[in-house]
Predict the 3D structure of the following.
Amino acid sequence: MKIEDIINLQNKALNEIEAAADSETLEAVRIKYIGRKGLIPDLMKGLKGADPTDRPEMGKRVNELKNTFQEKFSERRNQIESSRTESGDKTFDVTLPGQWRGLGKKHPISYLMERAIDIFHALGFTVADGPDIETVFNNFDALNHPPGHPARDATDTFYLSDGDLLRTHTSPVQVRHMLKHSPPVRIIAPGRCYRRDTPDATHSANFHQIEGLYVAENVSLADLKGDLAHFAHEAMGPETKVRFRPHFFPFTEPSVEVDFSCHICRGDGCRVCKQSGWIEIAGAGMVDPGVFEAVGYDTGTVTGYAFGMGIERIAMILFGITDIRDLYENDIRYLRQF
Ligand code: DAH
């Protein structure tokens, strides 16, 4: 054995350590060189047969080889270890708990709009749509609002600089639909509405309605009551009661306000229904002849009912929401409850 053999072995060993890309390969290198039957112990055994004059020098070299090997081996092992944690371990440990990614969920407003569409669809209604930016004609004139009606006021309605406005209700979709289709019509129109309201627990400047319109021969107030009661029972449970109170809207005659019994206290009175046991859900009525004239329908042959329901109102009693503003915070912890 010559000194050269030791130097060659050292170079080879260090190259192999450097080339080891993962801990398994590195471990194989360790066993190959310093395992019980490895090349370095082998070399040490060989020292006995070496020339006595060279032996001290060779012993020193072999020791150095062993130490350097150990040192480089540890260095490489640490490198592999840290790159493994940085780039993500490729090995898959089935015993580790998984990373749970929360499932998405429908916002209560979206849920209710879809639910309403389903319920009315079963009654033969189809969905009609209209834009958020409306003309004064569709939002007010065709709906029989006289000039100077307070709802037209710029303190109540958001007007755009070109004279159009952000629709204050979904009722203009009735006008759009009737201008394009002749009777019979049976539509619902869910959508966003805007009013210059100061936000509080029950008001928001941006809210949602579902408009309904049914025009045919012999449609009556009884149809309206039956269909809204059906909706109430389907959406909120069969024990829900519906009541009509006389009211006024420019585009219906007669007009009513529609209350549902409070889903939370079952009519006993609570914070959400302001102790009355009822919640106002919709405005409704029989379509005013003035509206039929504006869209060119023959008031002699058809009658119709219309309603506009507040979706937030329904959400509040269905889910026990005490502040309407919570619905728009988009706080995932809040929304997850529904
Ligand atoms: N548009 C009314 C509102 O926002 C609600 C309403 C009342 C809609 C009577 C109707 C209706 O279709 O017939 O207050």
The chain has a mean pLDDT of 92. The radius of gyration is 40 Å.
